3-dehydroquinate dehydratase (Mucilaginibacter ximonensis), 139 residues
Amino acid sequence: MNIQIINGPNLNLLGVREKSIYGDSSFESYLETLKSRYPQLNIAYYQSNVEGEIINKLHEIGFSFDGVVMNAGAYTHTSVAIADAIAAVKTPVVEVHISNVYKREEFRHHSMLAANCKGVIAGFGMDSYRLAIESLIAQ
């Protein structure tokens, strides 16, 4: 089973930025935990701060991978283009958020992507990614 994790803008700074919200671990260290927990899966990782690059990655893997775990960061709330890319591919996408976006600023309460995703997982810290993978395995 091939799972692609896609992280959007500023998530390359996990472990450094806003530790009270996002914790003090880098995503790369958590990725190693996921890979060791799921040795039967091929878990690929991609991060970009650029909207078009995220769309290109969805197009590249969206017909061949078994699932996508997507944390689009702030693009979640603004990107019709990423929402359209999710709708255009056949690979199921699970939207994830490390923080509980509903406890944060009002603009974070709406996702442009959610209607095109299999589901949304938010507020469980890095464990949101594991929960998303579990949902893809169970499909």
Observations:
- Helices lie at 19-22, 27-37, 51-61, 80-88, 127-138.
